[in-house]
Amino acid sequence: MTDTIFVLNGPNLNLLGTREPEIYGADTLDDIAGQLEDRAQVLGLEIDMRQSNHEGHLVDWLHEAQARGAKAVILNAGAFTHTSIAVHDAIKGIRTPVIEVHLSNPHTREEFRHTSFVGRAAKGTIAGFGALSYTLALEAAARF
Ligand code: CA2
User: S-S: 77 plus which of 10, 28, 108, 125, CB 3.0-4.6 Å?
Assistant: First the structure.
C-alpha cells in the first residue's frame, strides 16, 4: 500500500498567489499541490492536501491522519501557528510525525509571529523558502 502524506493548510492560505507575493511568493495553493504531486510520484508517496479557515478542521484532520495511518503530516497552520493550543495539543495527541512549514520566515517578521505553538509540538520546522518549504518537508517525510 502506498504511504500517504497529509498536507494541511490553515486560514487565508486559499488566498495565496492573489496578494503579498513579496512575502508569500506568486504560487497558488493549487500550484503547490501540483509541485508536491510531482515530487510525491517520484518518491512513491501519495499526497492528501487540504485547506481550511477553521481551527477545528485542522484538529479533526490531525486526528484523521493518525486514524488513517498517514506516514506524516506537513502542516502550515497559518496564523493559528501563533495562537492555537488546540492545534498544539492535537499534534501532541497523535503519534504521526508532524512537520511545521511556512512560506515566509516568521522570525524575521512581526514579534507576534515569533511564538509557534505548532513548533513546540512538531518534529521539525522548515520556513522561509516559499513554496519550496513544502517540497523540502516532503523530502524529510519520505525519509521517516
Ligand atoms: O509564512 C507562512 O507560511 C505563514 O504560515 C503564513 C500565514 C501567517 O499568518 C504566518 O505567520 C506565516 C498567513 C497566510 C496568509 O496568506 C495570505 C496570502 C495571500 C494574501 C493574504 C494572506
Answer: 10
Closest atom of ligand 1 relative to the 113 alpha carbon: 11
Domain of 40 in residue numbering reads as 4-142
102 is catalytic: yes
**Is the CB of 24 inside a 6 Å radius of any atom of ligand 1?**
yes
In the block, cell 498567489 appears at: 17
Confidence of residue 96 (pLDDT cuts 50, 70, 90): very high
Read off the C-alpha cell for 113.
509571529
Residues in the chain: 144
Given a cut of 90, is residue 1 above it in pLDDT? Answer: no
Instruction: Please tell me the distance between residue 76's alpha carbon and the centre of ligand 1 in angstroms.
Output: 9
CA–CA dist 38, 52 (Å, integer): 23
Lowest mean pLDDT of 17-26, 58-67, 123-132, name the range: 17-26
Distance CA 70, CA 76 (A): 17
Check 24, 54, 114, 134 and give the catalytic one.
Answer: 24
Whether the per-residue pLDDT at 22 is higher than 90: the answer is yes
Active site residue 24: yes
CATH of the domain at 40: 3.40.50.9100
Instruction: Report the domain count for the chain.
Output: 1
